[in-house]
Design goal:
The chain has about 190 residues and is α+β, with helices and mostly antiparallel strands. Among the domains are: about 25 residues, no CATH class; about 90 residues, Thrombin, subunit H. About 20% of the residues lie in helices and about 25% in strands. The protein is built from 2 helices and 10 strands, in the order ββαββββαββββ. A 4-stranded antiparallel sheet has the order 3-4-5-6, with no helix packed on it. Strands 7-8-9-10 form a 4-stranded antiparallel sheet, with no helix packed on it. A two-stranded antiparallel sheet has the order 1-2. The longest helix has 29 residues. It is elongated and about 90 Å long. About 10% of the residues are buried. The model has no long low-confidence stretch (mean pLDDT about 80). This is Adipocyte plasma membrane-associated protein.
């Protein structure tokens, strides 16, 4: 049949031959209308989404809820008398070893001597505001958050009947310490 001046439409899903080469088949991509897709997106963002949010918000505001709130007022607070009286006795306390011992925990008093674990991994013996001796498990330098796993952080100190200190360390475990000789027993 001849071409009578009518143009036939090509379908986009068919294979076509290139004019120069007859052995290569090329599939043409489907025609897209990118401008229309962009307009649909902008319409959704600037019109559809705000309208749906306004509709959902008005639904929440104007529909009755299943909760029936009741008015409640707090009772008057009790008077600060008896055990609730203001206690400022600690404001008159004397600070011991301020600036010399950092972060003491679990203080033990035995025959006038204080024993405590410190932030830098030491267990110290204090008599009359002076450090008599100390025991440290980790190698110096100690006293920072980074060195706590190696230097230790003694958090609990107790005395046994045979004058051994039992020290509970957060990182290194439980130790029995002879602080006079400066060594651990276990």
């Amino acid at each position: 049949m001849g071409d009578y001046g009518l143009r036939q439409r090509r379908r986009d899903d068919q294979d076509y031959l290139l004019p120069q080469t007859s052995h290569i088949k090329v599939r043409l991509p489907p025609k897209t209308k990118s401008g229309l897709t962009c307009c649909k997106f902008l319409f959704f963002v600037f019109v559809g989404l705000p309208l749906s949010l306004v509709g959902f918000g008005s639904y929440l505001v104007f529909t009755p809820g299943i909760i029936d709130p009741q008015y409640y007022s707090m009772p008057e607070p009790p008077e600060l008398t008896g055990p609730l009286a203001v206690n400022d006795m600690l404001t008159k306390a004397e600070r011991l070893m301020e600036g010399e011992i950092s972060g003491p925990e679990s203080i033990l008093l035995d025959q006038g001597k204080l024993y405590t674990g410190t932030y830098n991994g030491k267990v110290v013996e204090i008599l009359k505001n002076e450090v008599l001796r100390f025991v440290r498990w980790g190698p110096p330098p100690c006293g920072s958050y980074i060195t706590e796993p190696t230097c230790g952080r003694p958090l609990g100190v107790r005395m046994t009947s045979n004058k051994q200190l039992i020290v509970a360390d957060a990182y290194l475990g439980i130790y029995s310490v002879n602080i006079v000789e400066g060594k651990d027993v276990f």
